[in-house]
Amino acid sequence: MELLTAEQLKELQDKWRISKVETILSEAISIFGKDYISFATALGAEGIVILHHLYQMKADIEIFILDTGLLFPETYALKEHIEKTFGIKIKTYSGISLKEQEQIFGKRLWYRNPDLCCFIRKVLPLKKALDGKKAWITSIRREQSLSRANTETIMWDNKNNLYKVNPLAYWTWEQVWDYIKKYNLPYNPLHDKGYPSIGCMPCTTPVYEGEDWRAGRWRGLKKKECGIHQ
Q1: Which of 117, 200, 203, 226 is flagged as catalytic?
Q2: Is 226 a catalytic residue?
Q3: When comparing pLDDT for 23 and 3, which is higher?
Q4: What is the pTM of this model?
Q5: pLDDT > 70: what percent of the chain?
């Protein structure tokens, strides 16, 4: 389904590496079409930055969240607040219910087999969300972890068979917060409590000085990604 040649993809990567976020978003929507590109957000600080850009642009594309049923109360509250503040609707995609999961796989699968739990609660719902799309927008950054260090502003997503647009790939954590403060944007209060990366309650802990941004995810395990960005 690839729409771009290797040369065109490299040209976009080089161009967007020094482009403003609104330019990347505008051109991506133009290239793929507003009905064939969507923005996936976990409502972290980076996601708020992109949401605000889309709001300012009046971009008419689907915005969605993967609701695992295990998100922090603060995350659900922020979703409602963002929808009211920006006047937008954030669509929800989810997998089987927690009760169904327990009946099939037993209690607390996230502790016993977190990879399987993430696959059921995040990877499968994402595939549903991206069905029929040509590209999706994320808010991941190179600086977040070693596994994301080679992230480009646009890349081919082999796992989902479409393009992946990452407007904040080259942004720093300081730039993210400078933007949030400049526009006085709402954000998850857990960020003020040592959570730079916020996922599901059972699998997310605060990050301590000297640790990388994703050290609080699946603490004690080698696992650092849920599977949607691998």
Answers
A1: 226
A2: yes
A3: 23
A4: 0.93
A5: 99
**177-204: pLDDT as tens digits:** 999 999 999 999 999 999 998 999 999 9
Residue 144, both tokens? 């977040």
Beta bridge pairs of residue 162:
157
Read off the tokens for 137.
């927008």
Question: Contact at 8 Å (CB) between 53 and 25?
Answer: yes
Domains along the sequence of the chain with CATH: 6-203 (3.40.50.620)
Confidence check: pLDDT of 213 > 80: no
* R_g of the chain computed on alpha carbons: 17
Please answer whether residues 34 and 60 qualify as being in contact, where contact means their C-beta atoms are separated by less than 8 angstroms: yes
pLDDT digits (tens, 9 = 90+) for 63-94: 999 999 999 999 999 999 999 999 999 999 99
Q: Can you tell me which residue has the tokens 């994320």?
A: 138
